[in-house]
Each structure stands twice: as structure tokens, then as C-alpha cells.
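Thread: "does anyone have the structure for this chain?"

Original post by V.I.:
We have the sequence but no experimental structure in hand. Need at least a predicted one for the grant figures.
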Amino acid sequence: MTEAPTVSTAVHVCVDPATAFVAFTEEIDQWWVRGPINAFDSSRALAMRCEGGVGGRFIEVYDADSGEGLELGRITTWEPGERLSFTSSVDDVHIDVRFTATDDGTEVRVDATIPTGGREAGGTAWVRVTERWFAAWCTRRDRVSGPQPPLGRLGVLVNYASPGAAARWLSDAFGLASPSPLPTEADPLPRGDYGLPWIELRAGACSIIIGELDSPVPPEQPATHEPWVYVDDLEAHLAHATTSGATILSPIRHTGFRAYTAADLEGRRWTFLQANPAQ
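Reply from O.Q.:
Generated one for you, C-alpha cells below.
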């Protein structure tokens, strides 16, 4: 008899099992990262919601007043601090989440099982998002208040010959944060069902998407695009970029705004500006 395939992950979080259970369920709208590809319909998604108890639903919320939207799952097991199980409502996947106490926190194990002959159309994503986002939320939940801020209305796509290396360099040298772990594989990155791994960096509430060049850029081709990023401490940012290997094309200048311009590891130009106190 063929066993049903299971996709699994186990992450360690720095809180006790009861708190981890609450964080996973009641605080799902805090740890489920907003982003262009992180919802079934990102143009309508306003929040994520979990209804507690057997029969409760995980919902991608589209209506702020009613809290209704796309049902993602229906809860079948509800044992606070110990176990949570639910069936995916978008396909045939069954998800089982177990919370096991450790010496310094909790191991959260997620198993997503596809029944024999069943269909997978996104249900196994619970394994990936728990691994990428949930542990990070548990480390900062005591320092965060209020709902997640909405993403800005401008996103920038910057293409590189080596997108994995570029994303890691931009994060290290320019301090651009990523809502998910960056790929560690050497370029060219492996392709999945939907192409390259999605690489997204953040500058405040704005997304910077790192893509792959279709063909090399001729060295004589002039730059036509240049991201501008506002930072809290321009001098400190310049010093860190310099020690990280950025090529400084223009030192700090003051022409109504204070800014400097640098080139990254593939020669793309970036301008960094001093943010005002209200930003």
C-alpha cells in the first residue's frame, strides 16, 4: 500500500507551547507576511483570520466589516498548547501542527499530507510559511503593537545576472531587510514550479523585487533606472556600505536634500537619502 506523501518542517520558537499556539492562531495576521505573492488574491486580501475551535476556519479576509473572504482551511483538531489540525479548503491537503516543549521554548512541527489521488493547489504552503515567518514573529511579538502596516503602493523590480548573490549583498551592504530567508544556493538558482525563488527585499513599507536578467547588460549601456531609498542615519549608512564593498559614486551632497550614490556588486546605481524625522 502506497503511503500518502507528506511535506514537513519543524521550527524552534522562543516561547512556551501555550504561547506558541496562541501566536500561531490568534496572531496569524501579524506573522503572515504581506506581499504580492503571499495571498490567493493579493489585490483583495486585507488580513488573515483564524476562528478558534473545531469547525473554525482560516480565512483570507476580503471584507473588513464581516471578516469574510476565502476560506483556506477548516479546523478538525483544537488542543491548545499541544496540537492543531485542519483540512485545506483550497485542495485536498491535511495539515497537522504539533507544539512540543523544549528546554528553551517549543518545537513547532507542521506536516502537510496529500492523500493518495488528492490534489495539491497551495495547501502545503503552510509548511513553507511556518518555516519562514512564524519563528521570526515569535522573537519580536513582545516588541510589536498594532496591525501590520500596509505595503506601499510602489514596488521596484531590479534584475541581476546573479539574483541570489545580489540579494544577499544588498541585504548585507545596504541594510535592505527581507521578510523571508534569502536563498543560500549558488547562482543560477534552482527553478521550481513557478520559476525562480521569489526574492523580496523591503525599504520601509515598499517592496524591492530581485529578478533575473534575460540577457547580459552591455557594459557601455548607460544606467536608466536608479532606486532612491530613505534611511534614518545617512552617515552611518554610508560608512557601512563603504566597508561592505560598495563603490561610492558620489559622497554625501546637500542640494535641498542630503544624499549619496553608490554602485552595487553588479554596478547598479542606488541613491540613499536622509529621511526626515516624520518618516
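V.I.: this helps a lot. The chain has two domains: 6-143, 155-274.
O.Q.: and Residues 155-274 form a domain with the 2,3-Dihydroxybiphenyl 1,2-Dioxygenase; domain 1 fold (CATH 3.10.180.10).
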